[in-house]
Amino acid sequence: MPTSQTSRTPSSSSQITHPRCLCGKVAPVRTSNKLTSMGMRFYECANYWEKKCGFFEWIDSPCDSGRHELVQKIDLLER
Fold first, then answer.
1. 43 — pLDDT class (breaks 50, 70, 90)
2. Residues pairing with 16 in the sheet
3. Per the confidence metrics, is the pTM higher than 0.85?
4. What average pLDDT score do residues 58-79 get?
5. Least packed by Cβ within 10 Å: which of 56, 63, 70, 78?
6. Distance of CA 64 to the CA centre of its chain
């Protein structure tokens, strides 16, 4: 099971806990660009560009309020 690391952000005194991926490194925060999860943040393996251990954990929970309409508008704009 991955462990966590607590850090402080420079602009805030609140503490943020970052899990460690299965490689043992602190898992960085990434943001989804897929239409079904656009803008949602998640933790993923720190070795993203090398070998991936498969670690993945959502930070944000899905929000259905208005998401469908937003996805349709994005799709229309992309066409």
1. very high
2. 7
3. no
4. 77
5. 78
6. 18
